[in-house]
Amino acid sequence: MLDAIETYLALRRTTGFAMSTAEYQLKSFAAFAAERGQTYVETKTAIDWAALGPSVAQRDARLRAVCRFVRHVRVEDVGHELPPANHFGARKKRRTPHIYTTDEISRLVEAALRLRPMRGLRPHTQATLIALLSSTGLRISEALKLTIADVTRDGLLIRETKFRKTRLVPLHDTAAAGLQRYLARRGPGSDDDPVFIDKRNRPLRYIAVKETFDRLVDKAGIRSTSARRPRLHDLRHNSGNWIIPATDGQRRHFPENRGGVGT
Length: 263
What we know:
By secondary structure, the protein is mainly α. It has 9 helices and 5 strands, in the order αααααααβββααββ.
């Protein structure tokens, strides 16, 4: 079974899927089946293995990983049984994002510019990052991976995206100008250096950004209409509230980028 799993994983990876979680799950299942002396997928064994997951959602995810593999391998070998994918009855609910108003984005940027040290780079790093996320629709992981070479005249070059593709994200003129103001304050660097850095000139880490953002949400007095607090990730759902902070502390509003945004 392991050979079939390796072939399946290799094929899926050629189409852009990372498959790291699937690899762990399928190899775990193969070992579980091998303990029962089985070289083919059997429905009961698949359900028994999936049931070892600590929650309904995880049990459902484990079984669905096996089902995807079986659908592939049965094309050449019908000896594998296809378990019922909805056996555990889990339904994934996508969380409703908080849509930030123009005023809320402004307050977040202003709160970021008041971070300490006031004369250091940190306030401008956080403010520019927040503004860039809300103006481009970038994922936070994509923004943090940006290098100086990725900031081009035509926009931002986003490499190795979610599906291992590269795309160009156009910037509105005021967004491009705001980013250049930040880079000028940041100081010179090589093409491979990250755009967003910490106080030690190292790549900015997601956990540090998230912790700071959560504090800024509180300082800006932003409240969600739901029971859950507004998230950093929610910024990418804002398509019209676009602000880039100026070095003089003034806000620069600009209209929707009709040239296209990354999604």
